[in-house]
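TEACHING EXERCISE
Course module: macromolecular assemblies
Task: Read the component lines below, then compare them to the predicted structure of the full complex.
Student: A.B.
Group: 4
Components provided:
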Amino acid sequence: MKEDQYMDIDFRDAIVDKDLSRREFIKLIGGGIIVFFWVGDDSVLEAQRRGRSYPEDFNAYLRIGADGRVTCFTGKVELGQGIITSLAQMLADELDVGLDSVDMVMGDTSICPWDMGTFGSMSTRFFGPPLRAAGAEARAIMIELAAEHLQIPADRLVAENGVVFDKNQKEKRVTFADLAKGKTIARRAGEKPALKTPSEFKVMGKEFLRRDALEKVTGKAKYAGDFRLPDMLYAKILRPPAHGATLKSVDNSAAEKIEGASVVRDGDIVAVLHKNPDEAEDALSRVKAEFEVPPANVDDETIFEHLLAKAGKGNVVAQGGELEAGVKLADIVIEQTYFDGYKAHAAMETHTALAKVEGNKATVWVSTQTPFPIKNQIAEALSFAPDDVRVITPFVGGGFGGKSPGRQAIEAAKLAKITGKPVQVAWSREEEFFYDTFRPAAVVKIKSGITKDGKIVLWDYGVYFAGERGSQQFYNIPHHRTASIGGSGSTHPFGTGPWRAPANNTNTFARESQIDIMAAKAKMGAVEFRLKNLQDERAIRVLKAAAEKFGWTDSAAPSGRGVGVACGTDSGTYVATIAEVSVDKQTGNVQVKRVVCAQDMGLAINPEGARIQIEGCITMGLGYALLEDIHFKGGKILDVNFDTYQLPRFSWVPKIETVILDLKDQPAQGGGEPAIITMGAVIANAVYDAVGARVFQLPVSPERVKKALA
Amino acid sequence: MAETISFKLNGESVSVTTDGRRPLLWVLRTDLGLTGTKFGCGKAICGACTVLVDKAVVRSCIYPVRNVSGKEVLTIEGLSKNGDLHPLQKAFIKHDALQCGFCTPGMILNAYSLLHQNPRPSREEIIQGMEGNLCRCGAYTRIIDAIQTAAKEMKGGN
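Instructor-supplied answer key:
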């Protein structure tokens, strides 16, 4: 088969009327052997059509270049969660190349296909399977080409480490690089190419170190704030003292006297620009502004009352049996309300963007989880065509759900358009706290009942304002109902949004606290009681794994040992966590001494990477469990830096042990979020076990522990 | 109020002419183009901006550049010598002691100073010495392990 023929055949394989667009596109990324593939459902396709005019039948692709290097282009971004390694592993394995020869190009809207964003623990679960399929398809193409090149039937050929050879005569071989040389072949991955089975895995399921570590330990890794362009300016923007405040008057005269500073006013934006960021900030401090601040009608104490007053009707998430029948069956009925305050994302990198506008085209480097949606927002703000805006996402210094909104990118783009110079907007920590979309404050009301022998027979659960993720209980309860209730209109005095495992932290805290209360009433141990009420095999298996690793023995709480248990599910993954704490009764301080976490996440693509995520979840989770809470008065945020908003520190960290169940034959599930959901409940439960006092509101702060003890 | 400030930066003599009250962080990142040192909080609370001045830890976000006059400044870019990574850098890679990597330069330089003062720190001493550096991704346990590995590797030297 000649090369030209091959090309023709393959172009007929693709959707014919898109050839031109695809040809142009291939030119854009350079030649080589390219496999396009498709991720997601038709709604994604719809959204893609509204975006850039790519060929429309794919949203990811890989290329094998003439140098033998394999490049995966994806709209997903690296936030620290490690997909730069695990996605490459999936591709390398199916394609039979070494992991070192795979390059990841991520989050650049001009060369990566449309993607809605990196959140929801979806990269491995939903992007992974088609990526593997594309890898398998590419491997089949290489075998076909090699058969032609070597004049050997394809069924005698084997691919390994980027080389195809005759299994009977190993010296008859050709490299992927040689096969790709001078060729441009494009093909769309078929519906179901044969994927490897776990026994054939060479790269997946194996431990690999982070592939971005070298850049990150040498200071070479570039984040959005690290790009420098000729004549660029740094902007500092006037901010209101509270959400809802309106600007009454502004006097720029003192700021304009600072050498090199210029002031730009555009609608609501008052910005000071300077070639040095610190001098821009200094100049901004000289801007005299008066704001009218609306009266504060709610604060972090009264917020829960406020929320319940605004509650709407809600929707039933799950139900079964008859609640009335459950009440009749119950020997003990427990009604309890749980509370959770606002939490900040507090990624170490603040929201940052650098924008360059030339004519009617813009290039913007952004720290973001959602490069494509932000591209469209920028285009709209500048009145540019979406195709004329390019968003580049370099390394992102943490996201946790907080880097989907891209206000800073729009600010930088507007200022770059106005000034005609590249402009960087990098938020201060105070701006970061002010504009953060906090994890919402929420209330959970539960009425549950057990029989004398510890069987749960009633579960009436309502979550207010957290959201429904993680609200569905997984115990075997005959009479149950779960409802999620939100409000209408502006309920919160500031922005809220998804925070690592959204809603699930609050829901798991409430549910697993309630389960523990019932266990104690039944005078049963926390594991024993759960096992008695579980039928879900994955939940049983993961709980038993955690108990075994911990060396758990059941004893009714409070046992004085300071041990607690919590289970949960998130992103297709099951998690069971057991913690040991000590409580200082005088100060109310809780020190977490040991945490064991078992996780059923199906196939763990990179077990080492998965473990890091579990450890990270546990460590970050200590914060919302023990101390993190946003204080505010109306629209004024009172915690604006790490002096009063305390993040977990080195001294907080317990001994952490992880168990990842070996389930290589099961589909890969989420890994970046699940293990954080159990942290609130496991600590509240361990505190109760230690001192017999229960805290019903997160965080389990020293004040609340003391109050519970009193 | 521009003044000329001369110092050693990662072993090379440099001088900058600027307002001496400006924070060292921004002079490094803008005037000198070394972006490995990060801004985290601006109030010397998080440690992301940590650099070493005469081997002592300095939070460069609040440290006037004037104060480095005649001194030696070490940033993350100057840690590897002739292409060889410093044992701390190697240990951070080996232990996967980072995720997003934004706190990493500050962590490594803080650890460098810690090991300079105390070449064989106990786990407790590492925790004490690192307590002022924040990592939101939660890599603390691995960072502790990495520092212990580097300490062994360095055998008390630098």
